[in-house]
Each structure stands twice: as C-alpha cells, then as structure tokens.
Amino acid sequence: MKFRDINSNEQAADLDLAPMVDVVFQILIFFVMSWQFARFERDMDISVPSAEETKTIDRQAGEIIINVKKDGSIILNDRTISEDDLLKRLVAISETYPDQAVILRGSAEADFQSIINVLDVIKKAGIWNVAFATTKPAATTKPAP
C-alpha cells in the first residue's frame, strides 16, 4: 500500500471549471427563456377584474394567454389579431394538443360581449381547458365605528 508522503513534491489535482461554467450558462439560458415567455402574460394595458375567491394555480407548460383590451381588440403573443385568425390558430393547436390550456385575460373595462365572443371562438376551436385571470381586490380599510 502506497501512502502519500507529506513532504512530497506532487501537486494536488486542479479543479476543472469548464463543467461549472457550462452549468451556469445553462441556468442563465433557462431563466432568460422563462422570462421571455412570462413577458407575454403581463400586458400592462390590461387590468383584470378582481375577485374575492381567487386562488393561485400551478401553471402548465405551453399555456396560451389571450388578452382582450378595453376596446375589444384581441392580443395573442404580443400581436393584435382578428377573431378569424384566432380561430385558425386555436384549431391548429387543439388538433395537435387536445388538452391545451388557455388563460383568458379580459380587461375590467372591456365590453362583456367582446370577452364572450373570444370565449365562443375558443369553444369553436374545441378547447375546453379555459381559465379566467383575476386579481385579488385591494385591501380597503374600514373606518372604525
């Protein structure tokens, strides 16, 4: 059995940094891509209505987020599209992914009929997994009696 001599001139093994750098770049790419997809959901021109009974649900991969602005325009992937174009896209997606999830974000100031029209388009496309985005109401302080 050979023991290492303390006074030996052998150098200790060097730490290889290349794998660590690779992992750091992979994590960086993951977060940049996640930020890019989450950016579409946060359209600042839409203020979703508030509801008392909201709950946070786990997000599904590949969710489609459809925004309806107060003027009735439909925003999908940061582009304004018509109801016919939305129907074509959703039909193509639902044929490929039958359990596709859709989040409908209607502005609180939007005409209710505009939101119902988009909901009809989603139903015509054969998508049944639809959720409505809401926020919790702002905390209001009641005056003391």
Write a structural description:
There is one protein chain. The radius of gyration is 25 Å and the shape is elongated. The chain has 3 helices and 5 strands, in the order αβββαβαβ. A 5-stranded mixed sheet has the order 3-2-1-4-5. It is α/β, with parallel strands linked by helices. The longest helix has 24 residues. Helix 2 runs parallel beside helix 3. It has a domain of 85 residues: 2-Layer Sandwich (Nucleotidyltransferase, domain 5).
Give the arrangement of secondary structure elements.
Blueprint: H1 18-41, E1 64-68, E2 74-76, E3 79-81, H2 83-96, E4 101-106, H3 112-124, E5 129-132
Parallel strand pairs: 1-4, 4-5
Antiparallel strand pairs: 1-2, 2-3
Helix pairs in contact: 2-3
Low-confidence stretches: none
Total strand count, please? 5
- Summarize the helix and strand pattern as letters: HEEEHEHE
Strand order of the largest sheet: 3-2-1-4-5
End-to-end span in angstroms?
A: 87 Å
Shape: elongated
Share in helix: 25-40%
Task: Name the CATH architecture of the domain at 39-52 and 62-132.
Answer: 2-Layer Sandwich
- CA-atom Rg in angstroms: 25 Å
Could you tell me the CATH topology label of the domain at 39-52 and 62-132. Answer: Nucleotidyltransferase, domain 5
What is the tally of helical segments?
Answer: 3
* CATH C-level name of the domain at 39-52 and 62-132: Alpha Beta
Mean pLDDT: 76
List keywords for this structure.
5-stranded mixed beta sheet, alpha/beta, 145 residues, 3 helices, Nucleotidyltransferase, domain 5
